[in-house]
Amino acid sequence: MNRRFICAFFIVFALGAVAVPATQDAASRAPRNAAEFDVMFQQIKNWGRWGPEDQLGSVNLVTGAKRKQALSLAKTGIMVSLSHTLLTDKAEDNGSPFEQTMLGSNNMDNYRVSYHGYAHSHIDALCHILYRGQTYNGYATAVVNTPKGCAKLGIDNLKQGVITRGILIDIPRLRGVPYLEPGTPVYVEDVEAWEKKAGIKIGQGDAILLYTGRWARREKLGPWNVGGNAAGFHASVAPWIKSRGVALVGSDAAEDVVPSRVEGIALPLHTLMITALGINLLDNQDLEGAAATAAKLNRWEFMLTIAPLAVAGGTGSPANILATF
């Protein structure tokens, strides 16, 4: 065996590093354009899978047995909020700051928040993203999205909340960096390399949370236009997500790598998840505390509790999502 190879092997072993698979150039991965995107959308969509009137989408995969499994993961009782403190200052990544107005003798207040976007932690309802005049399950946009709210697929369908197994996917830790640079794509082989390193396997009914280090980078370098440049999943992961039976997907930005690398489609993963698969997305989660706790415990699975506001016909909701280890 080559002496240089042996030395390299022992250096890697001593440092505890994990080799990250070489990745294909994004330009060679489907979907690369709107036509390939449409093919993928039609191939993977879950329309009709749980009946023609289904309102829950992939949350149907969170069964009673799955909830019981999730409860068993609360071993230490350590709870970590995934909600970033609501941002009140306008910035490149926060065009609509949270507003708090004190009333009367200052013992009451009003809140005003435009939560969709790249600043505030929230969950997307299944009526939020449209594709070719339809929502998830093939409902016509004109029927679902009305001036009074979503007639179907509103966030109130999750009024009872969701409890399932959450899995943190820490790609910066996998690569030995503090955070991913904006625009960094995450591919299937990256996720599978993380599974191997963390000793877990993503399965049916799980919620996956992609940690990119967005908030750590913001703390160090300041805000930037996350809507124009963000690390995230490449759209090519969508069939894999379906094959694993993932129920919910989240990240510390908005899941999609930006720019998308799919010509003609701005947020392909958003559309494939919400509209094709019926997967609610957990945007702008603050995963710093969860990542630190997971590393300390050497355990990247936990009980995830999601409780959106019961807004009839809402396109989503701010949410204080909790991880219990």
Structure characterization notes:
With 325 residues, the chain is α/β, with parallel strands linked by helices. It has one domain (10-90, 110-324): Glucose Oxidase, domain 1 (3-Layer(bba) Sandwich), CATH 3.50.30.50. Helix content is 27%, strand content 18%. The chain has ten helices and 15 strands. The strands form four sheets. The protein has a nine-stranded mixed β-sheet, with helices on both faces. It has a two-stranded antiparallel ribbon with strand order 2-3. It has a two-stranded antiparallel ribbon with strand order 5-6. The longest helix has 13 residues, at 3-15. It is globular. It starts with a helix and ends with a strand. The model is unreliable at 1-22 (pLDDT under 50).
Series of H and E elements: HHHEEEEHEEEHEHEHEHEHEHEEE
Gap between N and C termini:
44 Å
Please indicate the percent range of residues in DSSP E strands (runs of 2 or more): 15-25%
Radius of gyration: 20 Å
CATH class type: Alpha Beta
Q: What's the mean pLDDT score?
A: 93
State the CATH topology. Answer: Glucose Oxidase, domain 1
- Can you tell me the CATH architecture? 3-Layer(bba) Sandwich
Number of strands: 15
Low-confidence stretches: 1-22
From the spread of the alpha carbons, the general shape counts as: globular
What is the name of the CATH superfamily? Answer: Putative cyclase
How many domains? The number is 1
Structural class: alpha/beta
Biggest sheet strand line-up: 1-15-13-7-9-11-12-4-14
Q: Give the count of helical stretches.
A: 10
Sheet of most strands: 9 strands, mixed
Into which percent range does the helicity of residues fall?
A: 25-40%
